[in-house]
Amino acid sequence: MRYRTVLFDFDYTLVDSSPGILECINYAMTRMGLPTPDPERARRTIGLSLPRTFVALTGPAMETGGQEFARLFIERADEVMNANTTFLPDARQVLDQLAACRVAMGIVSTKYRYRIERFLRDEGIAGMFGVVLGLEDVAAAKPDPAGLRLALERLGRQPTEAVYVGDSVVDGEAAYRARVPFVAVLSGATPRDAFIPHEPAAILESVADLPDYLGCPASV
User: What is the pTM of this model?
Assistant: First the structure.
């Protein structure tokens, strides 16, 4: 196999939580007296930290409102997010297949870890992952490479021994800065060409193609 350790982004890589995210964005913007964004524009911010999401939707002049946006987003997310999160097609089966190939797996996301862990527990697969890191675990969100470096440290792996799978240029930049091979998936809102500057090891349509790329057979 190419790699025995796989780190995943979460949103738009393994799951689709966009209905919940859009609900939380609209809730926060409305509470702040601001217009709600076009849904497609909002979807393109998935994967950014909440303050960066706010700036992306409102412009640099509104940067000081990022913390209030984040507070309101989280307030609503605690009520609606997990009920509006589902696995992307074939993602659950891919995790089973990689586990059968004895691939060590982890998650590094800008979503809060407690929310990811709740989803994994609800799905009965929390034990599949040797490490789960979210926003509360690092001083700086992606594209800062701190989360990837911490995940590798906890798994006892060197950067060249793992691959990071993600759907956004933020994921690609974080992997590039951490010197971790990056596999881009096109299941999010990022076009293929946008990944090229981050020198991905591969660009796949979705995680459904990951076992073949790794050399993990469907029956082991």
Answer: 0.93
Locate tokens 């881009």: which residue?
A: 184
The string of pLDDT tens digits covering residues 173-200 is 999 999 999 999 999 999 999 999 999 9
Length of the chain: 220
Segment 11-58, tens digit of pLDDT: 999 999 999 999 999 999 999 999 999 999 999 999 899 999 999 999
Residue 131 CA to residue 119 CA, distance in Å, equals: 15
Contact 145, 177 (CB under 8 A): yes
φ/ψ of residue 138, rounded to 5: -135, 155
DSSP 3-state of 200: coil
Residue where the block lists tokens 């979503």: 111
* Strand blocks (E) in 35-177: 86-87, 104-108, 129-133, 162-166
For 122-158, how does the pLDDT look when each residue is reduced to its tens digit (9 = 90+)? 999 999 999 999 999 999 999 999 999 999 999 999 9
What are the CA-CA distances from residue 107 to residues 5, 67, 163 (Å)? 11, 25, 11
Maximal CA-CA distance, the chain: 55
Give dist(CA 68, CA 70) in Å, integer: 5
